[in-house]
Structures are given as structure tokens and as C-alpha cells.
Design goal:
Blueprint: E1 5-9, H1 15-22, H2 25-28, H3 38-52, E2 56-62, E3 65-74, E4 82-89, H4 98-112, E5 117-123, H5 127-135, E6 139-150, E7 153-163, H6 187-191, E8 194-196, H7 203-210, H8 227-235, E9 243-250, E10 253-262, E11 270-277, H9 283-301, E12 306-311, H10 315-323, E13 327-338, E14 341-350
Parallel strand pairs: 4-5, 11-12
Antiparallel strand pairs: 1-2, 2-3, 3-4, 5-7, 6-7, 8-9, 9-10, 10-11, 12-14, 13-14
Helix pairs in contact: 1-3, 7-8, 9-10
Length: 351
């Protein structure tokens, strides 16, 4: 006889059992790096889910008791057809079909939200989870080498996806939206460029670049971007929270920027989240300068690796990454929608 599951939305009252589960060593091994207080869980995750509606989170109950949870978080902008999945099951309910029930519910929810692709991340060695994901048709498409420290060993992070609806038309390699044709790179040009932190006085230039239709095709952004959105983006750069941005200028003219974050002790890496260069103003040179700046940051502060993923059509940036010694480690297929085509997200890492 199959278990009788009931499903409901996550609520603030779930903070106690979620905290207990996240602090279970066997659950946390591949899920949460550090012990969490109930206040932390409530304020940093549950309240944001409930009040800001950034993601849809469902709780499965078995015999009237919470048994696990699954979240479906749709992406934005050029990736709005993609949703990210996160799931955990209380250890005392392992082996009772909770994971399968939650996965089926998540797929149903993602389809109802109009998503065409469901994506998740999992850690090498988490065989129980990987078997579950493969059971529902997920396949490994990309990975990050030695991304996470688990029980004395560095483990890969796998990225798995399930296509929920056809992603057509696919990019066929012709007519790159961002090309490097006509770009010139000289050392003399490089000398009059400067990398520094963004300042309040740079917001007009930042807003201009974030509204360049061609330049933003290396990101999820789709112009028009309002000044208020640019202001909020700028205010999220907080060093104490491990969020950084380097910007490249010629005089007061913004040529491009790279926004990145740093991981905690279990994943002491640098993660490039967005890189935009002005395709009309020395883009190859700017990309080279910005990638070099991030590599110097890694070396100066002792981080292990640099990870990023970029649309396959952003050849200015992908060629620069390859030139600077980055290795490609797969691609999330059809992750972006650019110029009427579905485009892969190519994964790169250094060293």
C-alpha cells in the first residue's frame, strides 16, 4: 500500500523541523555546510520564501508529520524558461517514498509555471540523491571540479537537468549575437584602462551599459533596465557578504564589469556570476583585463578555484576564458533564450 502523502506550502511554523533536519549530520553532509540556528533558518530562508515569493516551496506530510520539502525557483530574464530545484527529506523518513513524491510534485509545479527546463545541483558521492534524480529523467550536463569539501575529500558538483517541454529553435552556430570581429587588442590600449570598484558617481555609466542590447547578451539581463533596478543591483555588492565587483574604465567611461562572489570554508572558491563588456568599445581587451583581475583576486586571497558559466554565443568572453587557461567542463543545454534561439550555458573553471 502506497503512503498517503499530503502536500502544502511552506510556512513560518516549519522552522523548527527544518532546522532539526538541516543540522542532522547525514542530511547536512551534502546539503548544508554549517550548523544553523532556528532564527537563521527562519529569517534567511523561510521568511524570504513566504514573504517575497522568490520560489515555490512545498512540504510533504506523512501521517500528519512533515517529512521533507522541495523548492522550485524560476529564473529571470533570458533564463525565465528554467527553474532550479532543491529538495531534502528528514532522515527518519528515508526509504518511504518521500523523495519520489516530492520530485513528482516539483515537476508538476514547474510545468504549471510554464517552465521548459528543470535544473539542480548535487554533490559527487551523494548516490541516494543522484539515483532519485536519474529515476525521474535528469541527466548530468556539467560539473565543477573539487567544488565542495565533504568528509575530508574535495568533491565535484554535478549539474543535472530535465527538459519538460521542447526548447526550439536551438542555436545552430550561425550568426553569433556577440562576435569579436573588428575588435582590436593592443598593449597600448590596455595601459590606459583602469580596474577599480564601482562608486556612486558611476551609476549613470552602469545604467547605460546595463541597457545596451548587445552587450547584455552575456548575462540574464534583458533591457530596458530601470535606474532603480540598477541601483538595487549596485547595492547588493557587499564585501562582508562575499559579493564583489570589478569595473574597467577608460577615464570616466565604463568599458565593462565582472560581478562575483566567494564561497565559505567548505567551498572556498570564486564564482563569477555576471560579466558584461561594452561590445562597441574594445571588448576583447576589456574581457581580458577583467578576467585577469579576478585571477589576481583569487591568488591574493588564497581561494582555490574560479567557476563560471557563459552563453555559448558570447564568444568575446569564452575565447578570453580559454586564452587565460580556463577549462570547459560541460554545458547546461538550452539554458538561455537569446535572439529567438535557445542557447547553452558553457561551464568554465580555473585552474
Amino acid at each position: 500500500m502506497s503512503p498517503d502523502f499530503k502536500f502544502r506550502s511552506l510556512s513560518i511554523e516549519d522552522s523548527s523541523w527544518v532546522t532539526e533536519s538541516w543540522n542532522d549530520p547525514e542530511v547536512a553532509k551534502y546539503f548544508m555546510a554549517y550548523p544553523r540556528t532556528e532564527h537563521d533558518v527562519k529569517e534567511e530562508w523561510i521568511r524570504k520564501v513566504v514573504e517575497e515569493a522568490l520560489e515555490k516551496t512545498i512540504v510533504a506530510e506523512l501521517n500528519g508529520e512533515p517529512a521533507g520539502s522541495v523548492s522550485v525557483e524560476p529564473e529571470k530574464g533570458r533564463c525565465r524558461h528554467v527553474a532550479w530545484l532543491g529538495i531534502f527529506v528528514r532522515r527518519k523518513h528515508w526509504g518511504k517514498g518521500v523523495g519520489s513524491a516530492l520530485m513528482a510534485k516539483a515537476i508538476e509545479l514547474a510545468k504549471g509555471l510554464g517552465c521548459r527546463k528543470l535544473t539542480l545541483a548535487t554533490t559527487e558521492g551523494n548516490e541516494r540523491a543522484i539515483r532519485l534524480y536519474k529515476k525521474f529523467g535528469f541527466n548530468i550536463e556539467a560539473y565543477r571540479s573539487e567544488d565542495t569539501y565533504v568528509n575530508g575529500l574535495w568533491k565535484k558538483e554535478y549539474f543535472m537537468s530535465l527538459e519538460l517541454a521542447p526548447c526550439e529553435p536551438k542555436f545552430n552556430g550561425a550568426g553569433f549575437p556577440q562576435s569579436d570581429e573588428g575588435s582590436q587588442f593592443t598593449n597600448s590600449n590596455k595601459q590606459d584602462s583602469k580596474v577599480r570598484q564601482l562608486m556612486d558617481s558611476d551609476l549613470d555609466e552602469l545604467w547605460r551599459l546595463q541597457n545596451c542590447p548587445e552587450s547584455t547578451k552575456s548575462s540574464v539581463k534583458i533591457p530596458p533596465i530601470t535606474r532603480k533596478e540598477t541601483q538595487r543591483w549596485y547595492e547588493r555588492i557587499r564585501v562582508k557578504e562575499g559579493r564583489f565587483c570589478y569595473a574597467c574604465f577608460k577615464s570616466s567611461q565604463l568599458l565593462g564589469y565582472v560581478q562575483f562572489r566567494t564561497g565559505l570554508l567548505d567551498a572556498p572558491n570564486v564564482y563569477i556570476e555576471e560579466i558584461i563588456v561594452d561590445v562597441n568599445r574594445r571588448p576583447l581587451e576589456t574581457a581580458d583585463i577583467l578576467i585577469s583581475a579576478v585571477k589576481n583576486f583569487r591568488e591574493r586571497y588564497g581561494y582555490r578555484r574560479i567557476f563560471t558559466f557563459i552563453p555559448q554565443t558570447s564568444t568575446i568572453i569564452t575565447k578570453t576564458l580559454e586564452k587565460q587557461g580556463f577549462k570547459k567542463t560541460g554545458a547546461l543545454r538550452n539554458y538561455y533564450f537569446i535572439d529567438g534561439c535557445y542557447v547553452d550555458a558553457e561551464f568554465y573553471e580555473y585552474p
